[in-house]
Amino acid sequence: MSQQLPQNQTIAAIATAIVPQQGSIGVVRLSGDQAVKIAETLFVAPGQQVWESHRILYGYVRDPQTQQMVDEALLLIMKAPRSYTREDVVEFHCHGGIMPVQQVLQLCVKSGARLAQPGEFTLRAFLNGRLDLTQAESIADLVGARSAAAAQTALAGLRGKLATPIRQLRNTCLDILAEIEARIDFEDDLPPLNEELIINQIQQVLAELSRILATANQGELLRSGLKVAIVGRPNVGKSSLLNAWSRSDRAIVTPLPGTTRDVVESQLVVGGVPVQVLDTAGIRETSDIVEKIGVDRSRQAAQEADLVLLTIDSSTGWVPADTEIYEQVKHRTLILIVNKIDLVEKFTPSNFPEIPRIVYTAAAQNKGIEDLEKAILEAVNAGDLQAANMDLAINQRQAGALTRAEIALQQCAATIGQQLPLDFWTIDLRGTIQALGEVTGEEITESVLERIFSRFCIGK
Questions:
Q1: Alpha carbon of 223 to those of 133, 156, 333, 396, 425: distances in Å?
Q2: In whole angstroms, what is the distance from residue 13 CA to residue 370 CA?
Q3: 286: which residues sit within 8 A by CB, 6+ positions away?
Q4: In whole angstroms, what is the distance from residue 264 CA to residue 280 CA?
Q5: Which residues contact 350 (CB under 8 A, 6 or more apart)?
Q6: What is the pTM of this model?
């Protein structure tokens, strides 16, 4: 994918999700210097409607060869540079469904456009200076947001909450580099270098880098969500807990042990954090082949989960079988769920290991769910699982670049401490500056761009 936009190439794509009988409107988007010309070829606007930028026209799309009407539609023209890509952009707002938008897209291609690659509209916005790279990635995060908190974090990135401090750090490093290089080139004409000031500036940059890097795991949690596994012996109420929590009958509940034979999944949002809840088969030794497969899957789910809800039955208390399960999951972040608390007058905790977070529930009565969610958020905010309430959260690519910047700057500080010549100082400073530029896109390679934008949906 070239960083230089090809001349006279207008791209087209369907810009909305198309699901049969589900969408009322479908949008076909074009961008490039032929976009308006293609629109004039395909779109008929009856009456005295004015074809000008940022005006919506009513009419219909027709095949210029057969003159057959394809769809009744609206046409939106946005001329450069006042558009998403800073090129001429045209959008056909068609009826929803598969056929209208597909036919309009085919006509656009026949009229001179080519099909857009994934993320190519946003790539053009980046290459034309409409967005920096952090904003472009925030758009992808916004489209893929699975919770309100994730959406707000993406919007913050789109407004420059990440790019602004990164540019400030980069400018500070550029100023330091300029001071050092000036002493190298014009040593006799300038006062001595203020080494203490430079060290202080470097320490300030390192402190800010450390603060931003601390949001990497938090950002990953917002984007990918939290995987929670409910584990325990058969018939302790795991499925009832899932049903009460998800407010649905996702799992079959009976008094018979071993009812759940496979992992049952539900998607929830807790305090702004997407949560994937896995109700697992009761863990026990069994000769039933099907149940044994379910138990093996339960163990695997527990090992892969970010958080394990170890569930016990309050009416039986902690039994040796609970200890066996605990030994398998004790290295994970744990919350102990004491379920069926409605069946005992008073539950006295005894003989089970120290687990910092204990929640008492009566899942069949829908009791204790708020306490469970509170305990999960406490685990998140305590750092056990990394926090989620923030307006800045870097992704893994950005974290990699910032880590390289931090290492280079730490090496620069060490070089200064060793009293090495000024030329050595500049080597690591340039490495820091380049790594910081990779975050915002001021220093970026074609392969990195291709990797970033290939993950976008087509039409964005």
A1: 18, 14, 20, 11, 38
A2: 45
A3: 258, 292, 295
A4: 7
A5: 317, 318
A6: 0.70
pLDDT at residue 254, rounded to an integer: 40
**How many Å apart are CA 338 and CA 264, to the nearest integer?**
21
- SS3 category, 334: strand
Written as six digits, the tokens of 266 are 């539900």
Count CA atoms closer than 13 A to 55's CA, side-chain side.
Answer: 9
Angle at 371 between CA 369 and CA 377, to 5 degrees: 105
CA 5 from centre of chain: 28
Interior/surface letters 409-420, b for 16+ CB within 10 angstroms, e for the rest: bebbbebbeeee
> Per residue of the chain (460 residues), what is the pLDDT tens digit?
444 444 459 999 999 887 666 668 899 999 999 999 999 999 999 999 999 999 999 999 999 999 999 999 999 999 999 999 999 999 999 998 888 999 999 999 999 999 999 999 999 999 999 999 999 998 988 887 766 777 778 888 888 889 999 999 999 999 999 988 888 877 667 787 888 899 999 999 999 999 898 887 667 666 767 788 888 888 888 888 888 887 765 443 344 444 444 456 677 878 777 787 877 655 545 455 544 555 566 667 667 778 888 888 888 888 888 888 888 888 888 889 899 888 887 777 667 778 888 899 988 888 988 998 888 888 776 654 543 345 677 888 999 999 999 999 999 999 998 988 888 889 999 999 999 999 999 988 888 888 888 888 888 8
Task: Tell me the two tokens of residue 13.
Answer: 């794509």
Give the C-alpha separation, 73 to 58, whole Å.
Answer: 6
Which amino acid, 27? V
Helix, coil or strand: residue 265: strand
What CA–CA distance (Å, rounded) separates 440 from 453? 14
Tokens representing 152?
A: 């707000």
* Distance, CA of 276 to CA of 161 (rounded, Å): 29
Print burial letters for 46-67: b (CB count within 10 Å at least 16), e (below 16): eeeeeeeeeeebebbbbeeeee
* Rounded distance between C-alpha atoms, residue 82 and residue 51, angstroms: 16
Strand partners, 294: none
Three-state DSSP at 224 gives: helix
Strands 89-95 and 43-44: unpaired
Amino acid identity, residue 22? Q
Tokens representing residue 343 in the block? 């069946």
**Tokens 């605990």 sit at which residue?**
326
Residue with structure tokens 């456009």? 113
Residues whose CB is less than 8 angstroms from the CB of residue 333 and which lie 6 or more positions away in sequence, other chains included: 306, 307, 308, 379, 384, 385
CA distance 148 to 428: 40
Number of residues that make up the chain? 460
